[in-house]
Structures are given as structure tokens and as C-alpha cells.
Amino acid sequence: MGTAYVNGVKIRVTFDTGAPQSVLSLKAAERAGVKIDADGVVDGGLTRGVGRNLVKSYIAPFDSFKFDNGEEIRHTHLRVADLNMDSDMLLGADFFLSHRVFVANSQNKLYFTYNGGPVFDLMTASQSQAASQPTTP
Q1: d(CA 108, CA 110)
Q2: What is the mean pLDDT of the chain?
Q3: Fold of 2-122
């Protein structure tokens, strides 16, 4: 667990390498001033939480996403879904693929640096399926 800020609003994040995509809870998005019916919010397709249930997701624009350690992403988009979680956001494998991570158990800290590439996977299911289709010459 850790702390981050979305649009300056403090949120609790869970680092979860088992989750394929990062997702912000609907309640946390609303606390940060973003509603799913706002301009610029698009359909993100269905996403899955723990178990078999599929939940509708949205891709929404945010002014900033920031960690306590200072890393800040400005003018970004985040996947938002109405998930029942113990925290406000899951940081999934998409986040870890774009960062180098060092776990310091003795300090109870997680250190990471940006390694390049997209931080959040914002592809919808239809985009993912289209990308996996073979192309004809």
C-alpha cells in the first residue's frame, strides 16, 4: 500500500503486479473532481476485478497523478471503474512494466524510477483485439 495524489487529492494505492491494468475507483475519481459523464471521458470497455465479474470502465482525463516521492505525471488519463477495493487505486502490471522497482523490506519502502514507455494501459478490449488480429500483406 502507498499514498498518491490525483488532481491534488490524496488516495491510497495498492501495488498489484497480478492486476494487468491500473484502475482508479469511481469514488476516488469523483473525489478528485472527475465524473464519468464529463467531457473527455470515453468508454474503456469491460474490466475484471478479482473473480469472474466484469465491470464497465471509463478512460478519464486528469490534471495530475503524483506519488509522495515526487514522481508526477501531468495531463494524463486513468482507467476508472466502480470496483469494491480496500484502496482507491490498483497499480497493476502496466505501471510496473514502465518502471524499475526495488523493494526495501528492511525500510518498509518501495523505490521505483521511470524506465520509459506508457505508464498506464488505456487500451479498450476492442483496441486490444484489433491489435492482435493478423494483418494481410
Answers
A1: 7
A2: 84
A3: Cathepsin D, subunit A; domain 1 (2.40.70)
